Inverse folding.
């Protein structure tokens, strides 16, 4: 079965610093999603990547899917306290199935 | 603001109680999902409904019983739960099931505690 591994598991950065979160799949990705979750709340959809080499941006967050479609990275530029939360990658894993990584917990120090 | 609403937000129940979780989506989606989120574990898919028909039961114990009366509403009936069932239960919806590169939209979840 397909698995998604995220790294790092947790991250503490100073406000204004850049950071990168990685998501590696054990199988080829056909749809990769990034979500953000605040503690005890639901997931907020950030971006979806489908094609190898694809890159998308939303405000200061950029996500890429590598050419081989087995790894994605999420990059935050000039981090702010509002970026704090848990970032999860998710993927289609067959009909009616979605899988998720274990998440990266981000803390931004003001 | 989410288009998927879950109630209650918090629930504490004894192991012999019966309770239900409710989910409603206002997005016109046709697929709805129940997930379980436990500490330090990936989200676990429990059930999938596509056009009101259950299409996935991910080996979930029978003490969890889903119900989908229409494409906008999803319930999770709980009966004789165990302490290890304490978790955040998340409902999600998507335009249609079957993958197909469609993002899911999540509710804020119900935090369930079993005494």
């Amino acid at each position: 079965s397909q698995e998604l591994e995220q790294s790092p598991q947790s991250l503490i950065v100073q406000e204004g610093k850049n950071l990168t979160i990685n998501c590696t799949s054990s199988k080829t990705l056909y749809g990769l999603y990034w979500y953000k979750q605040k503690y005890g709340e639901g997931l907020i959809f950030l971006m979806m990547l489908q094609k190898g080499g694809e890159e998308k941006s939303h405000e200061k967050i950029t996500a890429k899917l590598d050419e081989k479609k087995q790894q994605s990275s999420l990059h935050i530029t000039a981090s702010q306290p509002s970026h704090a939360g848990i970032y999860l990658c998710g993927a289609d894993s067959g009909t009616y199935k979605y899988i998720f990584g274990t998440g990266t917990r981000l803390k931004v120090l003001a | 603001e989410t288009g998927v609403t879950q109630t209650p937000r918090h629930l504490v129940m004894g192991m012999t109680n019966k309770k239900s979780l409710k989910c409603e989506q206002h997005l016109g989606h046709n697929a709805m999902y129940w997930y379980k989120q436990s500490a330090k574990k990936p989200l676990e898919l429990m059930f999938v409904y596509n056009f009101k028909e259950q299409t996935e039961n991910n080996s979930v114990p029978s003490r969890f019983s889903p119900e989908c009366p229409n494409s906008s509403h999803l319930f999770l009936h709980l009966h004789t739960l165990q302490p290890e069932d304490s978790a955040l239960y998340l409902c999600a919806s998507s335009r249609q099931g079957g993958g197909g590169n469609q993002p899911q939209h999540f509710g804020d979840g119900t935090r369930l505690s079993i005494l």
